[in-house]
Design brief:
Its EC number is 1.2.-.-. It is built from 20 helices and 25 strands. It has 642 residues and is of the alpha/beta class. The longest helix has 20 residues.
Length: 642
């Protein structure tokens, strides 16, 4: 869904403030500036769909928002167990926000496991809506409850709303020719209707979505719509919910434009399509399904009308091999994967370095090592991207900072690959891939011109006057070699992994030539034109926080909190990790203290310390979840005071 907004503004990503009452029919309406809601239940309870629909309606309403889907690590954990809990957190506001929020104001718990897994994140006074039908003795025992938390007083510090969601849903659908089990599946729509009433969310989009989703099963569509409406009506009529809430549109949070809600993987897919159109090249994706990158393959497969060709290979190695072949053939070539797949692709990435062909390697990072935590997020592939190949095989590295920024990062990675004839690593992660935010749809004239010229004839004259084609004769500015399409008469040349002679591309074992080629490929990457690092330092701070990738939201939110409290702190966030911005060393040496928060054990800090001899301090987290703003603010305050 899209919406129109106007004029920019920045506000602190802080706590809920300034509730105001006004009459609204038979119930009060309170105005809030922001809310954090978490839907939680079994992986079969439809929590991701519920959260996604609430998010879509919130986006169409015009709020700023940020989401955090959290999937079970197991494909199908036993029902009602803690490992099987799936949740979706949404933070929406009437002003500019940066993170999915630290602590939910509202928890919708579909069973005891969902309550137990999430209660520790809730502040006192939070709203808890529980499906009482699932709080049976057996279900309670399964997750280790000695008694019923709904009855034993352990939830007295919260605003508890016990609702028999399953019973109410079945009752609402009794007119439909459905079994009880089929009717129970719509309880997530009942919960969505209730929350939509509580927060005055639009409903038309959800009803339209349900009709479309179940177009081939109209009775199921009508049943889900009936459950959704029943949830809305329940909120309107029950005495348990005496108040509903309004969060006004974030009309001043964004520049003028047309916006839509977008996830990181969807933005990345759109960015790849835009890059291929701007380069006037067909887009080829050679990929093997892997969490959390598979959605890019799914999305690109829908866009054959834009000249996109997707190939689901039998394994990771075949996927990148096909992509590299497509690059040789003149396509904008991409392969998508996660950390384990990068390890398998490493030899072919090295081959792409040797062949000096444009290739985008998209790594949607997840928790490791090995297969690790497939559904959890991490930033631990940076050193693999930098050095995870045999020999001296330098590769540019680009990292987006937000879900919407994945679009621009894809365009930037394509620019580098096409201009400098090199493979490029794009490092996103699970947090960005699955999270979403409002994204301004760019005008076509805002997109870069990525068109390239293929080699069309001889480019070198021998001493005897003969004109020949040298496949490794370089552009003096970019050091890029010519891109010659196979089958072009007179441009035949060798490809392969064995070292090539400078200029001619002939196989060479000459030591001096190998030294020259290694240094030339490194110089090409070192010479890539990237923007200078932008320093956010309004008042001459002595402490700098340096980040990369998806830590942008939590770091920036923490910086805002500190500045609002009167602290002085500067911020730099990197998109280009190889090569670094040329001014980065000068920037770093201008501060007494540099703090680098990362979702790893200090990989960027290692690179910065080695490159610039700066005593950078790491602040690390590797628990599969993104940083919380309050947590980072406390750590940065300690660094300032130290």
């Amino acid at each position: 869904m899209t919406s129109q907004v106007s004029s920019p503004a920045e506000q602190t990503d802080g706590t809920v403030v300034g509730e105001q009452r006004k009459p609204g029919g038979t119930k009060d309406v309170r105005r809030l500036d922001r809310v954090i809601i978490r839907f939680a239940g079994d992986s079969g309870d439809g929590m991701q769909l519920t959260g996604d629909r609430f998010t879509s309606e919130t986006a169409s309403f015009g709020n700023d928002l940020s989401t955090l889907p959290n999937f079970p690590a197991e494909i199908r954990a036993p029902a009602g167990t803690l490992p099987g809990v799936s949740s979706f957190q949404l933070h929406f506001a009437d002003h500019d926000i940066l993170t999915p929020g630290d602590a939910p104001n509202v928890l919708v718990a579909m069973n005891p496991a969902a309550l137990k897994a999430n209660i520790g994140d809730l502040p006192r006074g939070a709203e808890i809506i529980v499906n009482t039908d699932e709080f049976t003795k057996r279900a309670l025992q399964k997750v280790g409850y000695a008694g019923d938390p709904l009855q034993d007083g352990s939830l007295d510090g919260y605003n508890l709303h016990p609702v028999p969601l399953t019973t109410l849903t079945v009752e609402a659908l009794k007119e439909f020719d459905l079994s009880r089990k089929e009717a129970e599946r719509s309880k997530n729509m009942f919960a969505l209707g209730l929350l939509s009433w509580m927060y005055h969310r639009p409903t038309e989009g959800t009803e339209k979505f349900l009709k479309s989703k179940f177009a081939k099963k109209p009775e199921i569509a009508e049943a889900n719509i009936a459950a959704f409406r029943a949830g809305w009506n329940f909120g309107e009529t029950t005495e348990d919910f005496a108040v509903s809430y309004e969060v006004a549109p974030a009309a001043k949070a964004f520049p003028v434009g047309t916006y839509r809600n977008i996830s990181g993987n969807l933005a990345l897919a759109y960015g790849l399509i835009a890059a291929s159109r701007q380069a006037d090249l067909p887009l080829f994706l050679g990929s093997y399904p892997i969490t959390p990158a598979s959605d890019i393959l799914h999305e690109l497969s829908k866009h054959k009308n834009f000249g996109v060709r997707t190939f689901q290979a039998e394994d990771e190695i075949a996927g990148i091999g096909a992509a590299l072949g497509a690059a040789f053939g003149g396509s904008l070539a991409v392969t998508t994967t996660s950390g384990p797949g990068v390890a398998l692709k490493s030899e072919t990435i090295g081959l792409a370095v040797s062949l000096e062909l444009p290739l985008l390697v998209v790594d949607i990072q997840r928790g490791g090592p090995s297969t690790g935590l497939p559904t959890k997020t991490e930033q631990a592939d940076l050193l693999q991207a930098m050095y995870g190949r045999n020999g001296e095989a330098p590769v540019p590295v680009v990292a987006p900072r937000t879900p919407g920024d994945c679009f621009d990062a894809a365009l930037e990675a394509a620019r580098i690959a096409l201009t400098y004839r090199t493979p490029v690593m794009l490092l996103s992660d699970g947090y960005l891939a699955n999270g979403s935010e409002p994204w301004r749809i760019p005008d076509l004239d805002e997109l870069p011109d990525l068109r390239v010229q293929f080699a069309s004839g001889p480019n070198h004259t021998l001493e005897d006057g003969t004109e020949v084609f040298w496949p490794y004769k370089r552009d003096p500015q970019t050091l890029a070699r010519p891109w010659a399409i196979p089958g072009t008469p007179g441009l035949e040349h060798r490809v392969g992994g064995i070292e090539k002679q400078d200029g001619t591309g002939n196989i060479s074992y000459d030591p001096a030539n190998h030294d020259f080629m290694v240094r030339t490929r490194q110089a090409k990457v070192d010479g890539i034109d990237v923007p200078d690092a932008e320093v956010d330092d309004p008042d001459g701070a002595r402490t700098l926080v340096l980040g990369w990738g998806s830590t942008y939201g939590p770091i920036t939110a923490a910086v805002r909190r500190l500045r609002a409290a009167g602290e002085s702190i500067a911020q730099v966030h990197l998109r280009h990790l190889n090569p670094f911005p040329r001014n980065l060393g000068t920037v770093l040496k201008g501060y007494d203290k540099v703090v680098i928060p990362e979702m790893n054990l200090g990989q960027l800090a290692t690179l910065v310390r080695a490159r610039y001899l700066v005593d950078a301090h790491s602040y690390n987290q590797v628990n599969g979840m993104p940083f919380k703003a309050e947590q980072l603010a406390a750590a940065l305050k300690e660094a300032i005071d130290d």
